[in-house]
Every structure is written in C-alpha cells, then in structure tokens.
Specification:
Number of strands: 9
Number of domains: 2
Oligomer: single chain
Largest sheet: 9 strands, mixed
Shape: globular
Helix content: 40-55%
Length: about 300
C-alpha cells in the first residue's frame, strides 16, 4: 500500500474538492451572506509534521521553549466563514510568506470565479498582517471587494487620516508615489495598469470597549448602503476561519499524518480537507432539517450540529 499510494497525486483531492465546492456554490440556493456578500477570509496557521529529515529539509522547523526543534509547515486557507467551506488551501514551508500565499489564493479565486458565477458576489476579509499596496491594487484591479484591519505604521495616507480624528472617510493612494520596486511588483500582478492611476479606499476607525482603536480599510465606499455601525460585527466574522482551524486540528485530527514522505503528507492534508468539506455540506443540510422541526423552534437556544460526532 505504501508503494501504491506514491502513484496517487495529492492533486486528485484538490480537483475533487474543486468539483465539490463548485457544485455547492452553483446549486445551493441558501448560501449565507453578510452585507449581501459571500464572506471569505484568508489566514494562516502552523501545522506540526512527522519528524523525518526529508520533511525537515522541505518544510523547515521551529523551536519551542526548549532547544528541540519540531518539523513544521505553514498552512494558508481561503474559507467561507459563514458556511464553513474551505475553498482553497496551501501547505507550504514554515518560512513562507503569508502575503505571497494570499496572492496565490486571490489568483485561485479569480480563476474559480470565471466558472462559478455565485463567487462574483464575494468579499475577502484579512487580518492586520496582510495589508500591502500590492494587495490593494491587485484586488481593485480584479474587481474584488475587501475588508481588512491594519496598523497606523502602514501608509502615510492612512496615518494622516487617523491623525485627523475622523472615524469614517475616503483616502486615495497614488501608484506614482510608490517606490520603483513596488510599482514593478504591482505591474507584474496587474498588467496594463496606468502608472498614474489612483485607488480609493474607505478608512473606518472603531473604538473598542477597552478604549483601544482598530483601523479598518475597505473597498465598500457607499456609506448609506454599508453603514459605519455594522463594520465592527463584520470584522468579527473573521473568527470563522480560526474556528475552522480548531475543528481541523482537534476534531478532524488533521495533523495525525499516516505517512512520513512529502507526498503522503500532502495526500493526507488535501484528503482531510475534502472530507471536512463534505462533512460541512452534509451538516448544513442537516441543520436545515433541524431548523424545520416544530419542537426545536419553541426552544430557548438554537440547536446546532455536533462537530465531533459529525
């Protein structure tokens, strides 16, 4: 069996997952929305791998509080945070750049959107490690809406707005003012883009209960349609991807790999995600049936599917 599995490419599970998710979004009339969008989040997580030196050379390692080093990988996923579907996933060396992996996810999304019409009505959520001028131009160039958190050291235009004391407003970012390296990188991802072009971004400042402020950037410019008071709730939808990682690691035991080679690790990883997506889709159907039960509607708390048993 160990020899036979070497003939099975991990890409088989990736392709099956694409067929599964495409069918879900094309045929499901009850896709969950927020602000009228399917909400996807991109985020990474560290996964522990088996210990063979071959994997250590490929993926790298990380130390803990002791001197020992564990073989680790960086996993990045593109997740529908309302429905729980993993649309795209990457397992990469531990020192890979999350920003670069985000661009890979966006390219996959652009390609998938051509065949899955429902995906056109989507928005992408990012945490504060992801903002970059390249990402902004890439998303706007491809007509993709976004909502993300950033810090004040990110761009002068953002800092100036924060210092103005305003809570909701518009800033423009000029491509011409960026460094040559930035412009070259942007043009590589956005061929034909005018070097004199500007992008318009909405900045939203939210004051938390602790008194700390959070800075959000979005492409949703219409203040009447996408009103200020909803954005704090909108950002917290991002925790759906954190919950998903928890289910994968604890409930599905995705780090319990059955082989010690790279192909075995990638097979297990993508097969597990296919299994998790199938379980998620069946659970969504079961939840619909559950919600129709007359006796359930009368109860104080909402009933949900038990992920461990599912």
């Amino acid at each position: 069996m160990s020899k036979a599995r070497l003939k099975l490419l991990p890409g088989a599970f990736i392709e099956l997952n694409y067929i599964l998710t495409a069918t879900f979004y094309q045929n499901n009339k009850k896709i969950k929305y927020f602000f009228g969008f399917i909400v996807f989040a991109i985020d990474g997580s560290k996964f522990q791998l088996p210990e063979p030196d071959q994997l250590r050379e490929i993926y790298g390692s990380s130390s803990n509080q002791t001197e020992s080093r564990m073989v680790m990988s960086l996993v990045s996923q593109f997740v529908d945070v309302l429905s729980g579907i993993v649309l795209h996933a990457l397992i990469c060396p531990f020192n890979a750049s999350e920003r670069d992996l985000a661009i890979t996810h966006v390219n996959y999304f652009i390609s998938s959107r051509k065949n899955i019409s429902f995906l056109s009505n989507s928005i992408l959520l990012f945490d504060r490690g992801y903002p970059s001028v390249l990402l902004f131009f890439k998303l706007i160039y491809n007509n993709i809406h976004f909502f993300l958190r950033c810090n004040t050291a990110f761009l002068k235009e953002i800092n100036d707005f924060v210092n103005s004391g305003k809570k909701d407003g518009i800033v423009k970012i000029n491509l011409k003012k960026r460094s040559k390296a930035d412009r070259d990188q942007i043009l590589a991802e956005c061929p034909g883009l005018d070097l004199n072009s500007k992008i318009t971004i909405r900045v939203i400042i939210v004051v938390l209960n602790t008194g700390a402020i959070e800075i959000f950037l979005t492409s949703l410019l219409d203040k009447k349609k996408y009103f200020y008071g909803k954005f704090k709730q909108f950002y917290f939808l991002r925790w759906g991807i954190e919950t998903k990682y928890g289910i994968e690691k604890v409930r599905a035991e995705i780090e319990n790999f059955s082989g010690k080679s790279q192909i075995a690790v990638e097979q297990d990883f993508h097969a597990a995600l296919l299994n998790i997506n199938m379980t998620t889709i069946l659970s969504l159907e079961a939840k619909k049936e559950l919600d129709k039960e007359p006796n359930i509607k009368k109860r104080k708390y909402e009933y949900d599917v038990n992920n461990s048993i599912a």
